[in-house]
Each structure stands twice: as C-alpha cells, then as structure tokens.
Amino acid sequence: MHIAIMSRNKNLYSTNRLKEAAEARGHEVKVIDPLKCYMNINMTSPSIHMKGEDLPKFDAVIPRIGASVTFYGTAVLRQFEMMGVHPLNESVAITRSRDKLRSLQLLSRKNIGLPVTGFANKPADIPDLLDMVGGAPCVIKLLEGTQGIGVVLAETRKAAESVIEAFMGLKANIMVQEYIAEAGGADIRCFVIGDKVIAAMRRQALPGEFRSNLHRGGSATIVKLTPEERSTALRAAKTMGLNVAGVDILRSKHGPLVMEVNSSPGLEGIEKATGIDVADKIIQFIEKNLKKGSAKTKGNG
Ligand code: ADP
C-alpha cells in the first residue's frame, strides 16, 4: 500500500513509529505536512499539490493533526477523502472531537458517564452555573486548551467566581466542571482501535498537582480496565465516529466518567508504559479495513 501520514514534523515519536511500522509491513510511506499542501477543489479531479507537484496516489492516509492546525488540516484530509483515499480517522469525526463542548453533548446523548459540566458566557450567570455543577471545588477549563494548559482547580466559590469572570473578560470560551476528587490526581487513557481497547495506562499527577498530563510531569503505568471502563471507552470512540481514539477517563464513585476523546492520541506514553506495539496494530487495522472499503463519508461531512 501507499500510505500518507499527515504530520507537521516527521521527527515526532508517533509519526516515526507509524512510518517504521508501516515500512516493516512492506508499505510505502510518505510524511506530508498539511500546511505545505494546497488544493484544487473541483468536481472532476480534486487534487493536492505540494511544492508545485501533484501528490502521488495514496491508498490510505493517517491524519496526525495537531490542535492548532485543525481547520486547515481537516480541509486537506477532506480533500484526500474526496480523492478516494481511505482515512484512518475521518475528517468529520476529527472536527467533531475537537469541539470539546459538542463532544460532551454527543456523549451525554448516548448516556455515557461524564463529569457534570456547565457552560455560559455572561458573568451574571456565574452563580447559577456554579450551583449547577455542585459549587466549589470545581474545575474550570478553557475550551481551546490542550495538555492541561488552561485547566484550573478552583477550591473555593470566591476563587471560582474570579477565575470565571477573568476568563469571560478575556472573551475566552470556558466550561465549568464538577471536581472528581476521588480520582486522586489520576486518569486512565484507553487506546481504542476499531472495536477494541488495545492498551490502557494510568497517568498519575505529581504530588500537589491534580492534572495528570504527562506533559505536566505525570507518570504512566499499565492498568487493567474494568469491563465497564472498557465498554465506556469503546462507546465514546464510536459516538465520535473515530476508528482510532485516546479516551480519557476519570475513576469516580459513580463509575467511569469520560473527560475527552482524542483523535490523534500520542504513541510514546502508551507504548512505553505498556510495551505494546500500538503503531503495528494501527497499520494492521488499516490493512484489514482497506480490504473492506469501509470509509463512510468520503468527504461528504
Ligand atoms: P487537556 O485536554 O488540556 O489535557 P483535560 O480536560 O484532559 O485537559 O484535563 C487535564 C487533567 O486534569 C486531566 O488529565 C485530569 O487529570 C485533570 N482533570 C480534568 N478534569 C477534571 C475533573 N473534572 N476532576 C478531576 N480532575 C480533572
């Protein structure tokens, strides 16, 4: 097969591992920076160009689109879909999962456990919003944040009010969430491929920190999931329409609660913590699904 990996940097761990795994299985791979692509949108022969040249024909594309390039990256991916290239994750599903609020709304519609979450844009609504999520302590999140940046734990109602007011003053979109104290600064990353959770790790925050992101100094260890956690992760990925997803779960008194469904989950943390060859499993999944020809939307989303 000819496989394109959409990635801004070919030296990133995940990009490298996917390239290595695909080549080891006899495929030809090209890493393509979506920002270097430009496109010809037309009915008869949609095409993608890079540095004055038409891109060769690919069988499959693995999108690794960073949050900061979602808009242009998904447009390039859509163009691949229109050209009949099989996407590992479809552009519509990626766009859906990048909107944190929309994702939570879709997940809640499917009765998937979530932390109680509120959203408002007027300072006058803050008191009621705080009541809705059970008051302080609560977690305030910037909708555009990643890697734990813009996630604040407000321990008192006064602190929550001032932080929310400050964010609103800056015209930032935020959500306010109940704080799951019993998670103890840990979360579970479930790595989903197709209809299986193929690996899972528990990330633990540093002492005195509640955010378990590895970028924030958290540490990762292999974890055994409960059947409920496994099925929650699978249902969450399916709801978003993602074939490959990193589903982040908090262990609460009321069972697993989904925080986020990530459409370009990193491979480094999960492969190192579990010893599982995730990249190889992704390539095998593409091989099986390409045979079935199961891309659904073909750029129609
Ligand atoms: P990001 O997408 O920026 O990583 P998250 O929503 O995943 O932001 O939050 C970062 C970390 O903060 C999580 O991995 C988790 O450890 C912690 N966290 C987030 N929301 C809650 C919550 N409602 N209760 C307890 N801990 C939380």
From TrEMBL:
<feature type="binding site">
    <location>
        <position position="262"/>
    </location>
    <ligand>
        <name>Mg(2+) 2</name>
    </ligand>
</feature>
<keyword id="KW-0460">Magnesium</keyword>
<keyword id="KW-0687">Ribonucleoprotein</keyword>
<feature type="domain" description="ATP-grasp">
    <location>
        <begin position="104"/>
        <end position="287"/>
    </location>
</feature>
<dbReference type="InterPro" id="IPR013651">
    <property type="entry name" value="ATP-grasp_RimK-type"/>
</dbReference>
<keyword id="KW-0479">Metal-binding</keyword>
<feature type="binding site">
    <location>
        <position position="260"/>
    </location>
    <ligand>
        <name>Mg(2+) 1</name>
    </ligand>
</feature>
<feature type="binding site">
    <location>
        <position position="248"/>
    </location>
    <ligand>
        <name>Mn(2+) 1</name>
    </ligand>
</feature>
<dbReference type="GO" id="GO:0046872">
    <property type="term" value="F:metal ion binding"/>
</dbReference>
<dbReference type="InterPro" id="IPR041107">
    <property type="entry name" value="Rimk_N"/>
</dbReference>
<keyword id="KW-0436">Ligase</keyword>
<feature type="binding site">
    <location>
        <begin position="211"/>
        <end position="213"/>
    </location>
    <ligand>
        <name>ATP</name>
    </ligand>
</feature>
<dbReference type="GO" id="GO:0005840">
    <property type="term" value="C:ribosome"/>
</dbReference>
<dbReference type="InterPro" id="IPR004666">
    <property type="entry name" value="Rp_bS6_RimK/Lys_biosynth_LsyX"/>
</dbReference>
<dbReference type="GO" id="GO:0006412">
    <property type="term" value="P:translation"/>
</dbReference>
<dbReference type="InterPro" id="IPR013815">
    <property type="entry name" value="ATP_grasp_subdomain_1"/>
</dbReference>
<comment type="similarity">
    <text>In the C-terminal section; belongs to the RimK family.</text>
</comment>
<dbReference type="GO" id="GO:0005524">
    <property type="term" value="F:ATP binding"/>
</dbReference>
<feature type="binding site">
    <location>
        <position position="260"/>
    </location>
    <ligand>
        <name>Mn(2+) 1</name>
    </ligand>
</feature>
<feature type="binding site">
    <location>
        <position position="187"/>
    </location>
    <ligand>
        <name>ATP</name>
    </ligand>
</feature>
<keyword id="KW-0067">ATP-binding</keyword>
<dbReference type="GO" id="GO:0005737">
    <property type="term" value="C:cytoplasm"/>
</dbReference>
<dbReference type="Pfam" id="PF08443">
    <property type="entry name" value="RimK"/>
</dbReference>
<comment type="similarity">
    <text>Belongs to the RimK family.</text>
</comment>
<dbReference type="InterPro" id="IPR023533">
    <property type="entry name" value="RimK"/>
</dbReference>
<feature type="binding site">
    <location>
        <position position="248"/>
    </location>
    <ligand>
        <name>Mg(2+) 1</name>
    </ligand>
</feature>
<dbReference type="GO" id="GO:0018169">
    <property type="term" value="F:ribosomal S6-glutamic acid ligase activity"/>
</dbReference>
<protein>
    <recommendedName>
        <fullName>Probable alpha-L-glutamate ligase</fullName>
        <ecNumber>6.3.2.-</ecNumber>
    </recommendedName>
</protein>
<feature type="binding site">
    <location>
        <begin position="178"/>
        <end position="179"/>
    </location>
    <ligand>
        <name>ATP</name>
    </ligand>
</feature>
<feature type="binding site">
    <location>
        <position position="141"/>
    </location>
    <ligand>
        <name>ATP</name>
    </ligand>
</feature>
<keyword id="KW-0689">Ribosomal protein</keyword>
<feature type="binding site">
    <location>
        <position position="260"/>
    </location>
    <ligand>
        <name>Mg(2+) 2</name>
    </ligand>
</feature>
<keyword id="KW-0648">Protein biosynthesis</keyword>
<dbReference type="Pfam" id="PF18030">
    <property type="entry name" value="Rimk_N"/>
</dbReference>
<feature type="binding site">
    <location>
        <position position="260"/>
    </location>
    <ligand>
        <name>Mn(2+) 2</name>
    </ligand>
</feature>
<feature type="binding site">
    <location>
        <position position="262"/>
    </location>
    <ligand>
        <name>Mn(2+) 2</name>
    </ligand>
</feature>
<keyword id="KW-0547">Nucleotide-binding</keyword>
<dbReference type="GO" id="GO:0009432">
    <property type="term" value="P:SOS response"/>
</dbReference>
<keyword id="KW-0464">Manganese</keyword>
<dbReference type="InterPro" id="IPR011761">
    <property type="entry name" value="ATP-grasp"/>
</dbReference>
